[in-house]
Amino acid sequence: MSTPAIPPVLIGTGPLSPAEVVSVARHDARVALGDDARAAMTASRAVVEALADDPAPHYGVSTGFGALATTYIDRDRRAQLQLSLVRSHAAGSGPEVEREVVRALALLRLSTLATGRTGARPVVAETYAALLNAGITPVVREYGSLGCSGDLAPLAHVALAACGEGDVRVRDGELVPALHALADAGIEPLALREKEGLAVINGTDGMLGQLLLALGDLELLVATADVTAAMSVEATLGTDAAFAADLQRLRPHPGIAASADNMRRALAESAIVRSHRGPECTRVQDAYSLRCAPQVHGAVRDTMAHARAVAERELASAVDNPVVTPDGRVESNGSFHGAPVGYVLDFLAIAVADLASIAERRIDRMLDRARSNGLPPFLAHEIGVDSGLMIAQYTAAGIVSELKRLAMPASVDSIPSSAMQEDHVSMGWAAARKLRTAVDGLTRVIGIELLTASRALALRAPLRPADATAAAAGVVAAAAAPGPDRFLAPAVEQAVAAVRSGAVRDAVEAAIGRLA
């Protein structure tokens, strides 16, 4: 039997969902422009065309931009004006931005174009859809956006490629001139008209795309962190009593309840926990990194919920300046300012740093014979000869230190531009870029906790761990196996890959059902 075709993501029938953005950006789902979007764009374009004939100046239609907004441009120069805007704003510098980020950026600009509030013609949206479907990815550079007047430089690089200029990567990753890639894909280069230069660059799409990608990653990581925390509790002979549902209801944060539930279920029927649960146990309470894991992990979850709410509002927005209103006015506004997105990007970077920090403390606890309740120093095979996982903890600690620096908010900074016309900016793009780095660091710290806890649980034999924690440990059993020292970096990378791919979460869910 043939696999049924996956329907394309339809643009213009309502706000995109976060899952649809990730599907197009990361998994190359196709897109299609809906008839309602074409009708809305055609209607708003008629408003722009009428203003183009008006001898009075109208910003973005018959004037220059930014500090040059009072300069009137004759009609025979306006096509040049739009292309000049895109060329001059495609001023990025530095390393190339990741393919999935550029695809998210282009998709979200397409989504705003399809609202009919930008005054662009349907052909502009259709060209963006064709670029995405052909797997053509414009080269966007790391630096260039201040996060106000939108992600100008990144969006301009995408627009320039749509016009047949600049460089792009094709589906196999080869770097080619945009004009050649468009010709090979049968795409006609755009010839921008009045207002369209602004319409393709004036949005917060880069920072929003990276927020949505990060939220998708963090949904996996926080659930996996609940599992690795449970493994650490088990490995250090901690107690699950503090995770009881009735205790969590005394402080009814939804995220805390979800993480505590994951940890309870992950530790259910653990022979290791049961072995020291009797009245002979003198342990009254565990250290904070164990006992307070649901509180920290849960706070991360609740921060994510707030960020997700902001992202969903942004997905329902039409961000441009000026905008064509439903009643036919063309009005300047400040919706392009990235503050709403920048704040939550920074908030998430703080949460990510703290989640990694508490995980690193659990790693260190398992390696310290004074605090691990009977495990060998550094989980080494032959004390003195072998170093065990000593330096894996150094790696985690170095990452956590970097994450703390990345938690410094970008959105508290501002630097004026455009001859003081744009005198307060969001730095939301910078917040997005550092969050992306932070999410990668968190993935690595959770991977090291997985590796460490898996070896520690193996050293508790013949006592058996819980079904869920055994399933998680089984994913990295070979890499984590006790024994004489061996080249450690490959084992670390295997554990990181198991976290990043979702293999750990999948194994646990196969054992105990879906995690929160």
From TrEMBL:
Protein's name in the database: Histidine ammonia-lyase
PANTHER family: HISTIDINE AMMONIA-LYASE
PROSITE patterns: PAL_HISTIDASE
Organism: Microbacterium marinilacus
Gene3D superfamilies: Fumarase/aspartase (Central domain), Fumarase/aspartase (N-terminal domain)
Matching InterPro entries: Aromatic_Lyase (IPR001106), Fumarase/histidase_N (IPR024083), HutH (IPR005921), L-Aspartase-like (IPR008948), Phe/His_NH3-lyase_AS (IPR022313)
Origin: domain of life: Bacteria
CDD domains: PAL-HAL
Catalytic reactions of this protein: L-histidine = trans-urocanate + NH4(+)
Family: Belongs to the PAL/histidase family.
Pathway where this protein functions: Amino-acid degradation; L-histidine degradation into L-glutamate; N-formimidoyl-L-glutamate from L-histidine: step 1/3
Enzyme Commission number(s): 4.3.1.3
Gene: hutH_2
Keyword set, alphabetical order: Histidine metabolism, Lyase
Compartment annotation: Cytoplasm
NCBIfam families, sorted: hutH, PRK09367.1
